[in-house]
Amino acid sequence: MRIGNFKETYAADEAVFTSPTSRFWVAVLFIALAAFPFFAGPYLLYMANHTGVAIIAAVGLNILTGSAGQISLGHAAFVGVGAYTAALLTTRLGLPFLICLPLSGLSAAFFGVIVGAPSMRMKGLYLCIATLAAQMIFEFIFIHWESLTGGIRGINVPAAEVFGFRLNTEFSFYFVTAPTVIIAVTAARNLFRTRVGRAFIAIRDRDISAEMMGINLFHYKLLAFGASSFYAGVAGCLNVYLLKIVTPEHFPLHESIRYLAMIIVGGLGSVLGAIYGAIFMTIIPEVLQSIMGLFQGLSPTIMSYLYPLQTVVFGLLIVIFLVFEPHGLAEMWRRLKNYFRLWPFEN
Amino acid sequence: MKKQFHWSWVGVLMASLLMAGAAAGADPIKVTAQQPITGRFAFAGKQIHQGLADSLAYVNEQGGVAGTQFEYIYEDTGYDLKRSVASFKKQMAKHSPPMNYGESTGEGKALAPEINERYHVLYGSTSFSEELADRGKNPYMFVSGPTYAQQFGILLKYIAAHPKQEGKKPTVAFFYSDTEFGRDPIPYAREIAKKLGVEVVAEEVTAVGAVDVTSQILDLKRNNPDYCIFQGYVVPPIPAVIRGAKDFGMDTTFMGSFWTMSKMLLDKLGADGEGYMGVNPYAYWYHTDVPMIQKIRDFNKRHHSDVTYRPNSYMQGWFTGMIFAKLAEKCHELGLPVSGENLKDAIPQIKDWDTGGFAGVVSFKSTNATAVGKVYSAKNGHFEPASDWIYLDE
Q1: Best of A144, A173, A241, A243 to disrupt the B interface by mutation (most B CBs within 10 Å)?
Q2: Does B17 map to a domain?
Q3: Which of chain A's termini has less CB crowding within 10 Å, N or C?
Q4: E strand or H helix that includes residue B317
Q5: Is B14 inside a domain boundary?
């Protein structure tokens, strides 16, 4: 049992993981992540890869919406930009996966900055609609610029190759997704310990005060759009190599809304929240599906009632979480940790 | 008051499961399916699923394929690509079936490389997409009927043979949604129209489920085509277009392909539906003179006594079940085990297969699609045959 957490240096005070206990658990997490693919089958690995992609995208949106306070309804479009960039760079120029990955991010960031430009004059709901327009425009381009995007048929992409290894199974791809997620999350966590990250938070909390403190609003808002879209682009690139195809149908508006739901359910403004939200939104429908599946043998018609029920249950779960913990899953986790901090004694 | 839990029910359940297991015998042929039972495709998904389940149950009732029964294992996907791919992978790992049924064109496309390289499983689906019937590219995949492009081919062949004015080239307009579903057959349709001497005078494109179609109707009026073919819709905006055209006094004949040949659409159209035409690969529930329809009705009477109608999406599921059984039978005839590899090789060997009047006489010739359909015309809220089976690919 810990009785205190004393810090003797500024470095210790600024550390991300402040106590030996948290460092221990993080180590356990890393070991578990490394060991996971050796025990899991293709389905679990596919879900893990897929969740990884969602985490990167959600962490990205969280930078923009959760931390800098700029609501975006166009996140899926930026994932799409990244995805198409990766597909084009691979199929047209034959660039290797490891080069495509950052380039996809950069390309999405470039368009993110352009879409973010109206944020100089707009905020709140108005900006939200501007990003919605971006979503529509990109969707339109994905479908109609056929010579570039392949139109509705999309682009088929060969399996990624890294140092001569062909990543054509979920197992091998996991070894790309997991490190990318770790790097992305670490970078996001550290972003908020820098001037830039603090500027984002200042803008979110009160833009006028932030400006009076010498923060260039436009500059930082664009940076937030750029950073967020960079994450989206990277997620898009991974998504393409995971599915080995990209079509416009992969990035509809409701996908953008799903990303928003992830960060709201997880906890706005918290990196951990975005991770929990992404996991929740990806895994829970699968868990519900499996639970409902247990009843399949009972009667031939029972599933026609149970399957629609899972959508209702999923919706209810989201509402219940938000009602009982508006700060999201991250806050629940924090309270749980606090409870166990002095366990078995009362706090 | 709390309801008492009766352990006897569990006993009954266990006993019936055991009995079912014993009756099934050893090693059934597993058919896995990702079905869009919920989500925006649910209106058809539920019926397709039921059709496939019933079709396989019917084969089992008839003694299975050379004594081997089918086992149908399905999951709901909510018409979500990521979930359906996940579900496919889960089922492959758990059951390693020789046959699988997929929920959408999107799923088929996403899985195509892996099916060719890794899974080697026969793949039927809800899709009528051209790409999934391409034997060279996707040899494991088949389409349970003519592809959309082939459906257009059938309609255009009909149009070419039925000009409105003798001696004058018939004219046609394509009216489609701006989606994959809508655009899929259009390039082929333009080509075949040219070949058949049918002039394409207009192409109207709308968002899916568009409400305001005034400008498209005006454009149709300007070009006044003899026929207008819808593609990529389920119901809206078709009633609005047909009513609008009527208000303008146009005498264009409106036509549809598989999804727009439903009772649901005819019911919405009401009196305006009279004379609406289109192509359907299957016979309808009320064509009681068709031997296979009689069997389907009889099966439903025995197992789903409350059912009074089955739409054409149910027929699509049923026909897929028939193809699964036919291919398994072919493998058995050739003395080969029922594996994905052998089933795939059996597809081009299906020749002149009599489907009991249900889907014509089927041969998988140059594509993994049937390339046959019938043109129907609506009379008194029912679709009645306007042609015999029309075969492309001849």
Answers
A1: A243
A2: no
A3: N
A4: helix B312-333
A5: no
